[in-house]
Design brief:
single chain; 200 residues; mainly alpha; two-stranded antiparallel sheet
Length: 200
């Protein structure tokens, strides 16, 4: 009897990367930005953020090609380059970021469910915290059962993240009106989409 493989296929790895990149922020940030910034500022902010994330995404394949022996996680690069203390600090910081990311993700989930179940409120009631804890420990138990099952759950979650984004883009493209988009640009300033500048 052959031992089960611990390797993931291309589809599972792609889902893992996309699922890791598409976090809770992509669903909650647009409404927060729209409340306090106009379209030009929001687009500039998204462009800068996207460029930064793209550069970060290019760093990791470069590191993996240069140092293929370092396979213990992101913090392994910091440890190899700067020593044990910086490696430990990097691992600790990564853990804290993951912890806060999980908390914010579950708060966002139960805040959304609070619209249908008032007991969940804004995602910070004791009922929401209890249900979020159960979900988190259930995910942990599934990961402990094996990488294959965890990859399957991750693929399902990734599809659940990507489908609403695609639907939103299609609906926004159909209903887009330039006069509404540029309503706050002022009488003396016209938004030039291609140039991204204002002509007075």
């Amino acid at each position: 009897m052959t031992a089960p493989s611990n390797r993931l296929g291309l589809a599972a790895l792609t889902a893992l990367v996309v699922g890791s990149m598409v976090g809770a922020g992509i669903f909650s940030l647009p409404q927060n930005i729209a409340r306090s910034a106009g379209p030009g500022a929001a687009l500039l902010g998204w462009a800068i953020s996207g460029l930064g994330m793209l550069m970060l995404a290019f760093v990791f394949p470069n590191l993996a090609n240069r140092k293929p022996q370092l396979d213990a996680g992101i913090y392994a690069y910091a440890k190899a380059g700067f020593g044990d203390y910086i490696g430990f600090s990097s691992a600790w910081g990564y853990w804290i970021c993951s912890l806060l990311g999980n908390v914010s993700f579950f708060v966002l989930i139960f805040s959304g469910l609070g619209y249908f179940v008032p007991a969940f409120g804004e995602g910070n009631t004791w009922q929401a915290i209890a249900c979020a804890s159960v979900l988190l420990w259930a995910m942990h138990a599934m990961v402990l059962r094996g990488i294959g099952q965890a990859a399957l759950i991750n693929a399902v979650v990734t599809v659940a993240k990507v489908v609403p984004i695609v639907v939103f883009v299609v609906i926004a493209a159909i209903g887009f009106r330039l006069e509404v988009f540029t309503a706050d640009s002022g009488a003396r300033c016209r938004w030039v989409v291609l140039a991204g500048s204002c002509a007075g």
